[in-house]
Amino acid sequence: MVGVLIRMKLRVLSHSLGGRRGVSYAIGGLVGLVAAVVSAGFVISHPGGPEVGTTIAAALAAAWTLGWLFGPVLTGGGDETLRPENFALLPVPPTRLAFGMLAASLVGVPPVATLIAFAGLVVAALSYGAGAVVVAVLAVLLQLALAVLLSRVVIAALGAVLGSRRGKDLGVLLAAFVGLAYVPARFAIEALAPLIVGQSSPVFTSVLLDLPTGWGADAVGAAARADWAVAIGLLLALAVLDGLLVLAWARLLTRRLTVPQAAGRGRAAKTGTERVRRVLLPVSPVGAVVGKELRVWWRDARRRAMLLTSIVIGIFIPVFSSAGRSGIFMLPFAALWIVFFASLQATNLYGFDGSAVWHTLVMPGAARADVRGRQVAWLLIVAPVALLAALVLPGVTGDTTAYPWVLAIVPAMLGASAGVMLVLSVLAPYPMPAQRGGNPFAAGGRPGCSRALLQLGTTLLQFVCAIPAVALLLIGQFDALPVLNWLAVPVGLACGLLAAWWGGRIAYQRLAERGPELLGAVRAPA
Amino acid sequence: MEDSPALWISGLRKVFGSTVAVDDVGLTVPRGSFFGLVGPNGAGKTTSLSMCVGLLRPDAGSVRIFGADVWADPVRAKELVGVLPDGLALPERLTGRELLTYTGLLRGLAPDTVAERADELLRVLELTEAERTLVIDYSAGMRKKIGLATALLHAPKLLVLDEPFEAVDPVSGATIRTILQRFVHAGGAVVLSSHVMELVEKLCDHVAVITRGRVVASGPVEQVRGDRTLEEAFVHLVGGRTGGGEGLSWLAS
């Protein structure tokens, strides 16, 4: 069973790694391997005695295991190369299937990278004699199994909870907020590093070693002191924990295979606001698209999550960067960050639609209405939030000189974003995970490196669009001419309108000409 | 335009990598005809139909809908055709009625007309009960029906339907058949693909058999099938033979 599954996984991997996907997989793998070698290096050579080495190994094991836990949630990954459903009809007991899936999970670049990272412990143990080396080898293997199993069990448990469509919507939000956690995480690392290396906090050190992720390192430390009872006891405890996780995974596999995914009949759509929309939106093709887009921004959890996170990040970043260092106080300018992130997340609008793009393509002359409608809808959502932040935050923070700056740059950026995002959506579309069925965390294609560069480059155009307004502001500032400062506001607005109009024009002409190619690009691979 | 056929395809070709999916396909669908496109799995039916309605760019060949070239004069051609693709998503987070309203307004119909037609279509296709369900929560059969409704909404002259009866329950299937037959009687033309021969034989007056990207027979149903059933003629035409008679001696021994 194990051999068959491993061979199957290798075959599937080798089939799926042709061409560009292979390149991006190779780059990702390379980054992982470098990180692993660096981790191992830290354990092998560091400023401090064996005690410190043990703590560092425990901290790194905890970090890598955390990576295994959050990585799949964050990247929408979760190793689905071999799906348990494919083996549902085999007469195999679930525990054996779980063991087989575990073995197959250990094949691939991420487990190898983790193994290398953990293997620093073995090298470090060389100086303490053969016994310590044996303990270290066993500890590393058990620790790797622990990381992989924890990841599998947590994702499987989440998958079980998030089976229904409403649950999936929750999962998307969860992933979005895990993505946000990097800001506090950076501060955590800055604060914790001295604790680990300097051994200045005995409590923190003992917590690191007492967590299951530290048991392996602790066992090697015990072996170095020739405290064999503790070393073997810790290894046994780790083995038992691994065993329990295999059993838990088997239970979850059984559940996944026998409990049907909830049909996910969502709450009926609200139609109460219908009349309001009918009054406010013009009855025209563009109006129809705006209405559809507004509904979808709200009803599609992925889109809602993106909007929410961009607003949260937009406020977080200035708060953190003002709180962290003695720099410029950026909170009055939070509106700019909100617009920036909200546009960054909306550069694949047709990817959200997936194959539903056909519906626009079969309609005569719908490209223009579609592009304009999407621009208007995005502006209707983001502009009020950004303008509210622009009007309130400078006043609240007492930095009223920021008003002309914010009020001039925000409209320029809003307009430029509305133009740029449509151009990008049409020029560099990529498929998103299918909306129906499957693992809530499974990802479809990922944008490649070239697209990320294109995205970054084009986003900079937003700032180009703000240049005329900024120039006026600077002149006004140096010559102390408040008139010029306030003149920058209509100039920013005009630049924004021009950019939105121009970008939209490029987008709809391209959509009309290359619609079928767009459809081909955003269709999720079957 | 006056007497050009409902759909005219010539020399259509599409190559994916090293696979020739559609190879020199030519067909003429007369006005007022009920045209069935049949072929084994992977024969190129969906690829051909996608190229006919402007969803996939052909490598060569041309397509005309009532004389309007789909790739040179797309606006005119798209006004005349209603499309139901197979296996593609719809705007998933709209209810059935919202989808129809959106489609109608985007096509530039008057709001009153849209409301009236949407009402009728939902009622006839028995989707009224699912009024407030999002399309993403529809069953496979309901998706076919709402897709058909969006294809019919602007009163096209030609319907291009890819597997319209797949996953549709018998009662809804009968409803759809009746609607399509009325459409043809009123002078419209229907092109549908299917691999259910009985259905095509019962419903269509014209049929084309496509296999490995090529049309191997095309014309009125009686002419294509001769004195056999359509299924027998089909198996003969695609060069297959009904297997399953030999080997497998270990089965149920």
Task: Give your account of this protein's structure.
The complex is a heterodimer of chains A (about 525) and B (about 250). Chain A is mainly alpha-helical. Chain A folds into 2 domains: about 1-260, no CATH class; about 280-520, no CATH class. Chain A has helices at about 1-15, 20-45, 50-75, 95-105, 110-125, 130-160, 165-180, 180-200, 200-210, 210-225, 230-260, 275-280, 285-300, 300-325, 335-345, 350-355, 355-360, 365-395, 400-425, 450-480, 480-520. Chain A is globular. By secondary structure, chain B is of the alpha/beta class. Chain B has one domain (about 5-235): Rossmann fold. Chain B has helices at about 45-50, 75-80, 95-105, 110-125, 140-150, 170-185, 195-205, 220-225, 230-235, and strands spanning about 5-15, 20-30, 35-40, 60-65, 70, 80-85, 160, 190-195, 205-210, 215-220. Chain B has a 6-stranded mixed beta sheet with strand order 6-7-8-3-9-10, with helices on both faces. A 4-stranded antiparallel beta sheet of chain B has the order 2-1-4-5, with helices on one face. In chain B, helix 6 links the parallel strand 7 (about 160) and strand 8. The model of chain B has no long low-confidence stretch (mean pLDDT about 90). At the A-B interface, helix 13, helix 17, helix 18 and helix 21 of A face helix 2 and helix 3 of B.
Question: Which architecture of chain B does the CATH hierarchy give at level 2?
Answer: 3-Layer(aba) Sandwich
What is the strand content of chain B? 15-25%
Number of domains of chain B: 1
Total of domains of chain A: 2
Order of helices and strands of chain B: EEEHEEHEHHHEHEHEEHH
The structural class of chain B is alpha/beta
Distance between the termini of chain A: 27 Å
The main pleated sheet of chain A reads as:
none
Helix and strand composition category of chain A:
mainly alpha
Roughly how many Å is the radius of gyration of chain B?
19 Å
Number of helices of chain A: 21
The portion of residues assigned to helices of chain B is 25-40%
Q: Tell me which oligomeric state these chains represent.
A: heterodimer
CATH superfamily of chain B: P-loop containing nucleotide triphosphate hydrolases
GO molecular function, one term (chain B): ATP hydrolysis activity
Protein name (chain B): Nodulation ABC transporter NodI
Pfam family, one (chain B): ABC_tran
GO biological process, one term (chain B): response to antibiotic
